[in-house]
Design brief:
single chain; Aminopeptidase; about 190 residues
Length: about 190
Amino acid sequence: MTYPIVNILDLVETIGEEQVQSILSDFSCPKNQEIEDFVHRNALDFAKRKMSITYGIFDDDGNLAAIFSLTHKAVEIGNSNLSSSTKRKIERYAQLDEASNMYTVSAFLIAQFGKNYAVSSKSLTGNQMMDCAFDILTRVQHEIGGGVVYLECEDKEKLLSFYQNDQNRFKPFGKRFSSAENVDYIQLFRFF
């Protein structure tokens, strides 16, 4: 099954901002309130300000089945735990700062990634959602270059297992603590 992927800015041009906000306000993600709050409060504003672009994945009935948000951001990846082959790959995109022993990489960030539990799209898997995100990233990479993607997720075994599975192949590289949310985030990256 193919799922249409729509940039919410394109959706605004097609059906109008009020209708898009209505679609986004119906998004429900009880497994991650942060994603739901982002979709309701920030997705449209961030897209209009070009801070991040949210994409909707729609099912056959035209319902918003899932979202992901993409942006680009510099990220630091420590050198000490990287394999020799990973170091060679990352050096295509960054230089090592000898003083800090860190690579600063301009990377694509999958900033938000979640299913809409308000609609019954059980056939849409997380791996299919990730494929949709990489379809967009591959097109962007073709236009502007780059080759590193990263994301952050809560330190939960099921999430980490999903992101590190044989299809998604993300590797942990660091942690970040959010005092605002009182949450530890695991940072993961991969090449594409």
